[in-house]
Amino acid sequence: MGRKWNNIKEKKASKDANTSRIYAKFGREIYVAAKQGEPDPESNRALKVVLERAKTYSVPKHIIDKAIEKAKGGSEENYDELRYEGFGPSGSMVIVDALTNNVNRTASDVRAAFGKNGGNMGVSGSVAYMFDATAVIGIEGKTAEEVLDMMLEADVDVRDVLEEDNAVIVYAEPDQFHAVQEAFKTAGITEFSIAELTMLAQNDISLSPEDAAQFEKMIDAIEDLEDVQQVYHNVDLGE
Q1: Nearest one of 26, 6, 4 to 16, comparing CA atoms
Q2: 108 and 216: one domain?
Q3: Is position 209 within any domain?
Q4: Residue 113 and residue 218 in contact, taking contact as beta carbons nearer than 8 Å
Q5: Which CATH number goes with the domain that contains 89?
Q6: Residues 195 and 134 reside in one and the same domain
Q7: pLDDT in tens, 164-221
C-alpha cells in the first residue's frame, strides 16, 4: 500500500475539473445507481457510496440533483457496467471500468486506446486476480494511532491504517466502507479527503522513464474516453 492517495486525487481532480469530465462521469454513475435502486441514499447503499465519492471531488450539487431527478423521472436511458483488462509496457497491468449505452463502441474505443499506446487488451480475468477490491477512506488532522483507536472502539475490521502525505488512510474490505465512515462520524469527523471503492494492485511495479511516459499516455487516452469511469493499474509513477 502507500499509493499516495492525496496526490493522485488532486492530480486527477485538477485535470478533470478543467474539462468538467469528472462531473459528467459522476452524473452518469449517480444516475445509474439511483435508477438501479431507490433514489434515496439512505436506502440505496450504492448511491450513498457514489455520493460520498462525489463529495470528495467537489461535484456541484446541481449535477447530483439533476442525475437523481433524471432517475426519478423514469428515464429509459440504460447503461451496461463493463470491466476490461489489459496490459501496458513492460508487463504493466490495467483494469478499466466503464458505463456505456453502446457496448460495441466502448469495447472498440478501449481496445484502440490500449493498442495505439503500446498496450493490448487481455481476456477477462487476465489481470483482475492481481488486484484486491478495497475501501479506501482518508482524513486529515489525526494520527494513525488515533484513527486505529476509533476503528477498534467502533469494532470495525480494517486491513491497515497508514499515515500518507499529511493524511491518515484506512484500508478495509469493500463491505466495511460505510462502517469505517460511521466510525469516523461517531468521533465527530464528517469530512473525508478520500472515500473510494477501488482496485488495489497487490504489487506495484516501476517502469523506465521511457516506458513510464508511454504508460501515462496510454492511461490518459483511456481516461479521456467518455464511457470510462475508473482506471486502476499496478504502476508506481512516483507521484
Answers
A1: 26
A2: yes
A3: yes
A4: yes
A5: 3.30.70.980
A6: yes
A7: 878 899 999 999 999 999 999 999 999 998 899 999 999 999 999 999 999 999 999 9
Look up the domain containing 122 and give its range: 80-129+202-233
Is the Cβ–Cβ distance between 14 and 24 less than 8 Å? Answer: no
Q: What are phi and psi of 104, to 5 degrees?
A: -65, -40
Going from the C-alpha of 126 to that of each of 19, 72, 123, 133, 219, the distances in angstroms are: 33, 38, 6, 16, 18
Gap between the Cα atoms of 64 and 212, Å rounded: 35
Same domain, 59 and 13: yes
pLDDT tens digit sequence for 116-166: 999 999 999 999 999 999 999 999 999 999 999 999 999 999 999 999 878
| Cell reading at 187 | 468521533
Q: Is the confidence at residue 233, as pLDDT, over 60?
A: yes
Same domain, 150 and 88: no
pLDDT over 90, % of the chain: 75
Structure-block grid coordinates of residue 28: 452518469
Question: Which residue's C-alpha cell is 459528467?
Answer: 24
Q: Please tell me the distance from the alpha carbon of residue 55 to that of residue 189, in angstroms, as a whole number.
A: 14
CA distance 230 to 57: 14
pTM: 0.88
Do 58 and 93 lie in one domain? The reply is: no
Q: 239 in a domain, yes or no?
A: no
DSSP 222-234: HHTSTTEEEEEE-
